[in-house]
Amino acid sequence: GAISGVVDITIGASNQASVFLRTAAGALYACGYNGQGSLGLGDTTNRSAFTLVTGITGVAEVWSTSCDNPG
């Protein structure tokens, strides 16, 4: 279903294939590529639909960083 109250959208910096939504209520939803568990959902399964990231509340800001692997 629809996610209401979306106030922020963040695109993953490292691969631009993951997206995070933050709601006014402080919930965080994740979607996309999940290599190395980058979506924070406790597994490495890619998601084609936004999924609530559980275990955190009151999210005020979302940052995405990248780490280059030269090897």
Task: Summarize this entry quickly.
0% of the residues lie in helices and 32% in strands. It has 71 residues and is mostly beta strands.
Tell me about this structure.
With 71 residues, the protein is an all-beta fold. It contains no helices and 4 strands. A 4-stranded antiparallel β-sheet has the order 1-2-3-4, with no helix packed on it. β2 (18-23) and β3 form a beta hairpin. The model has no long low-confidence stretch (mean pLDDT 88).
Q: What structural class do the secondary elements suggest? A: mainly beta
The dominant shape is: globular
- Quote the distance from N terminus to C terminus: 41 Å
Strand order of the largest sheet: 1-2-3-4
- Helicity level, as a percent range? under 10%
Largest sheet at a glance? Answer: 4 strands, antiparallel
Radius of gyration: 12 Å
Keywords:
4 strands, mainly beta, 71 residues, 32% strand
Topology:
Layout: E1 6-11, E2 18-23, E3 28-32, E4 47-52
